[in-house]
Amino acid sequence: MVNALRKMTNYLGLTEDDLVSDAQLAPTPAPRRIMPKPSAELAGTASPRLSVAQPTLMAAEPAPVLDRIVTLHPRFYSEARTIGEHFRSGSPVIMNLSDMEESERKRLVDFASGLVFGHSGTIERVTPKVFLLSPPNVMVSTEVKAAAADASFFNQS
């Protein structure tokens, strides 16, 4: 393989025969994994031939604290960056698009849909012009709304 590569590079004029050595063209070996030695506690319990690898416990990142919900009333599409910054920081965002023109409203909803998809969140329509963007650590339940619609005591007729 090394000879074929050397011949090809010489033929193309990229190298000269004297300048390329086998050591330069030879692939470098992959680094070896070194297993940690068993701890002193295991040395007395395990046989000398049997080593038990301890699982490495990684500290879990604390979940971001949900301390606020951001409500925005954008008038122009250029305010999409503000929506994205608040959502990326982990805050749920309520977008009230009632002050926007129809064409810009559609663009902003498309932007918000991509933003939510890229960060594994959810987007829900609250009213025809109000949307809730929820990050993945926030669960939005619509069970209360469905249960209230089925309750008979609200029906006054």
Q: Using the 3D structure, state the CATH architecture of the domain at 70-136.
A: 2-Layer Sandwich
Give the number of DSSP strands: 4
Mean pLDDT: 74
CATH fold category name of the domain at 70-136: Translation Initiation Factor IF3
Keywords: Cell cycle, Cell division, Septation
Pfam families: SepF
Region (Disordered): 28-47
InterPro entries: Cell_div_SepF (IPR023052), Cell_div_SepF/SepF-rel (IPR007561), SepF-like_sf (IPR038594)
Architecture overview:
The protein is α+β, with helices and mostly antiparallel strands and 157 residues long. The protein has a domain at 70-136: SepF-like protein (Translation Initiation Factor IF3), CATH 3.30.110. It is built from 6 helices and 4 strands; from the N terminus they run H-H-H-E-H-E-H-E-E-H. It has helices at 2-12, 22-25, 40-45, 80-88, 102-118, 143-150; strands at 70-72, 93-96, 122-127, 130-134. The protein has a 4-stranded mixed beta sheet with strand order 1-2-4-3, covered by helices on one side. A hairpin with a 2-residue loop joins strand 3 and strand 4 (130-134). The protein is elongated. The model has no long low-confidence stretch (mean pLDDT 74). Pfam families: SepF. One of its GO terms (biological process) is division septum assembly. Keywords: Cell cycle, Cell division, Septation.
